[in-house]
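Sample intake sheet
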Amino acid sequence: MGSTACGGGDTGSGDAVWQAPPAAPTSAAPQEGKKAGTAAGTDKELCEAVDRADTILTGQMVQAMQGGGEGPSASDIQQGLKEFAEALRSASDGSDSEVAKAMQKVAADSQKIAQSADPAVEAAKPAFEEANTILEKACQAAGVKIKL
C-alpha cells in the first residue's frame, strides 16, 4: 500500500472508480462465517476485507491522479489512509488471530501516517512497508493473496 499511495501500485485496468463500502448489516444475527458476538470473521474473511479496503484506497488514489496533477495531494492520501485504517480496524475488531493483529498494526500505522504533514513520505518508510509485508504473509498463510 505504501507504493500504492504514491501511485506505484497495481491498479488493474486503470478504470477503478471509488465505491463506498457496503453498509453494516442491521440484523442482530451473526453473519454466516463470522464468530458469534464479534465483528471479526475467519482469517480468510479478514484478508478479503483487507483486499477490499486496499482496492478502495487504490481507486481513490487513481481518481485523484486523474485530476491532471502530479499525483494525489497530501489531503487525498490522508483521507484515504484514515478510511483504510478504519476499515481494517472495524473488520478485525473482536479477533486476536495473527491476521487480525497484523491488520490492527497496519491500521494504527496508517492512522499515524494520515496525521503527518507528508503522508506519502511516511508511507514509504521501511517500518510501514514491513508492517504491510507481515500482513501480506499472514494472509498468504490464510490462503488469500494480497499486495499492499
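Comment: Confidence is low (pLDDT under 50) at residues 3-38. The longest helix spans residues 43-65.
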